[in-house]
What does this fold into?
Amino acid sequence: MAKSYLHLFRIQGQDFQNAGKASTGLKTILTQIGIDADIIRRAAIAAYEAEMNVVMYAQEGLMTVEVNSSGIRISVEDKGPGISDIDMAMREGYSTATDEMREMGFGAGMGRPNIKRNADEFKVKSTVGVGTQVDVRISIN
Ligand SMILES: Nc1ncnc2c1ncn2[C@@H]1O[C@H](COP(=O)(O)OP(=O)(O)OP(=O)(O)O)[C@@H](O)[C@H]1O
Ligand SMILES: [Mg+2]
It folds into this structure.
């Protein structure tokens, strides 16, 4: 791959109607580029979980996807409440999802563990009252 690619997707908080569009867009782009199916699957899962967390917990966010010959970087930055205890939020089963969200099938507390499992690198930065930034890298080859 000689070229490198950059795509931005906006994510709107509480907009369950359009939830998943950013990660679907990412999947389309990676497919067009000709990325290996297993890499696409891992990137799409990580992107979807990060996107859903913006929809569920934040006001708005921006997903930036960069692809080059060495890998895929997905960065999701949001404006929102932030996370006071990132270690606790990373634990399997920890969730502050509302009953309404649980009825929609979310809130198992598996989003972040799922991102970690599918990423080669995973970083979370957050400032309470400001927002959260999630950085995922998936290597190619
Ligand atoms: N972008 C975010 N802004 C604020 N809080 C967040 C954000 N992302 C996650 N959290 C907090 O971390 C918790 C754990 O997130 P995680 O994605 O693992 O689980 P979940 O979203 O609650 O459930 P699931 O992802 O299984 O539907 C959330 O319940 C929420 O309290
Ligand atoms: Mg989640």
Q: What stands out?
A: The mean pLDDT is 96. Residues 49, 52-53, 111 surround magnesium ion (ligand 2) (CB under 6 Å).
